[in-house]
Amino acid sequence: MKHPLLHIALLFLLVVSLMGCQSVPKDVTSVDALPDIYPDYVDVTIPVGIAPLNFAMADDEVETIDVEVKGSKGGAMHVNGDYADFDIDEWHQLLQTNKGGMLTFTVCAEKDGRWTRYRSFEIFVSPEPLGEWGITYRRIPPSYEIYSKMGLYQRDLATFDETALLETTQVPDQCINCHTANHTNPDQYVFHVRGAHGATVVHRNGLDEILVAKNDSLGGSMVYPYWHPDGRYCAFSTNKTSQMFHTAGKKRIEVYDSSSDVFVYDTQTHTILKDTLTMRRLWAENTPAFSPDGRWLYYTTAQRQVYPTDYDHEKYSLCRVAFDAQTGRLGTDVDTLISAFTTGTSVTWPRPSYDGRYIMYTQVAYGYFSVWHPEADLWLLDLQTLERRPLDIVNSDRAESLHAWSTNSRWFLFTSRRGDGLYTRVYFASIDDKGRATKPFLLPQRHPKQYDQRSLYSFNTPDFTSRPVDSHARTMGQQIESDQRTPTTVVAQ
């Protein structure tokens, strides 16, 4: 048996050896330029509690990076290695100390044995809390006809921990669609599964209801859900979706609906409430969303075209209709908030802020499936003034879409293809009560550059969750694979 002092001595020698392998800045040349880092975290605004913003130099030939971080209200950190890898506990303490203040980053990089010190940059630590435990999302591979491996996942935003809610390994040869919670509440959610054992899964009051995937009276499945705040009702659209491929230009694929309608589902009575206002024969209604007070149902609508030849003539307007939660009925009048006939563009994915002040939406040249449209940008509609404007600081020359608000309406997330034009990734930004947003930052990863270079999956339909979702993938898979289904009935109003 070796003496304990020998263990200590060997450990000391190992630490000294590892320290000796580190390259520290010497004979440094200073340049008046910001460091080119990946991800680009220069001048972003972050919340207290977010996972460390690890980064690397964009130049793959950089051998070592040395980073010093100083807080305007106190505290400091120092890391050295092939990328900036911050200790999670120290990082959270530094953010807490500097809430409402600034973090100053000084980066030195070694390349070909020569050190360069770059101009320092800052990150602002917002006084506004994020107020959410994490996010949920679907990750999908770059395929169009074969489901391959995909799944629903949740991610702790304070760490890098990710867990699966359901994967196609539990439901083979089926497509798992969007996971939608009720105002970030993990106790109430819905998602759809397409395939041989297709179903719409509704989770509420601690129970899972596996609904029949399609209703003949609807002519399609229950997709694009959005919960009423009281939890009894959920709005859906039903879509007959097709796709085609471009042979030239920046766009690769086009997704369109030969028909679509909007309806409300009553979870207590398992009743689909059809209304002629949102199910017109010559119009395509889509992407519904309830107002945070539950009094309005927002949706988009477009005149149906001749498909697929006139797909690029399809342009959606943003409308709303009153909703009475006591009766489950829609009103009789439709308000048009943004007219495609006036703007010449198309509105998709309307998402009201939870404080009721704004609607964030995606504007595209035509259609609604914005993830395939490079021109897709995020816009903000002020519900008090009905003024609308683009979120210029957030938008890029790639597709921005699939956005969601935090419960306090001071943060939002969205997906973007700005990184490489191929894969959608999740970004975050803060927004104040005047609707002014900040420069977005990429979802932190332990080794972000390596993660994005090796990942072949896109993030899809992300949303915040206030707490972890209590889901058992194996049990859920068994329920979906069974033949037991809850039928729904259709009531015309």
Main features:
five-stranded antiparallel sheet, 37 strands, 10% helix
Characterization of this structure:
The chain is 10% helix and 44% strand. A hairpin with a 5-residue loop joins strand 32 and strand 33. It is built from five helices and 37 strands. The protein is globular. The termini are far apart. The longest helix has 18 residues, at 4-21. It is mostly beta strands and 493 residues long. Strands 1, 3, 5, 6, 7, 8 and 9 form a seven-stranded mixed β-sheet that branches. Strands 13, 14, 15, 16 and 17 form a five-stranded antiparallel β-sheet that branches. The model is unreliable at 12-20 (pLDDT under 50).
Can you summarize this structure?
The protein has 493 residues and is mainly beta.
Q: Compute the number of helices.
A: 5
The proportion of residues in beta strands is 35-45%
Largest sheet: 7 strands, mixed
- Low-pLDDT residue intervals, each spanning 5 or more residues: 12-20
The computed structural class is: mainly beta
Distance N terminus to C terminus? 83 Å
Mean pLDDT: 91
> What is the radius of gyration computed over CA atoms, rounded to a whole number of angstroms?
25 Å
| Backbone shape | globular
Number of strands: 37
Helical residue percent? under 10%
Q: Which secondary structure elements does this structure contain, and how are they paired or packed?
A:
Elements: H1 4-21, E1 29-30, E2 37-38, E3 45-46, E4 56-57, E5 64-71, E6 76-81, H2 88-97, E7 102-111, E8 114-117, E9 121-125, E10 134-140, E11 151-156, E12 162-167, E13 175-176, E14 180-182, E15 185-194, E16 199-204, E17 207-212, E18 214-215, E19 220-221, E20 223-227, E21 233-245, E22 253-266, E23 271-274, E24 283-290, E25 296-303, E26 317-324, E27 329-338, H3 340-343, E28 346-352, E29 358-364, E30 377-382, E31 388-390, E32 400-405, E33 411-416, E34 425-430, E35 441-442, H4 448-454, E36 458-465, H5 473-481, E37 489-492
Parallel strand pairs: 1-8, 3-9, 23-37
Antiparallel strand pairs: 2-4, 5-6, 5-7, 7-8, 7-9, 10-11, 10-36, 11-12, 13-15, 14-15, 15-16, 16-17, 18-19, 20-21, 21-22, 22-23, 24-25, 25-26, 26-27, 28-29, 29-30, 30-31, 32-33, 33-34, 34-35
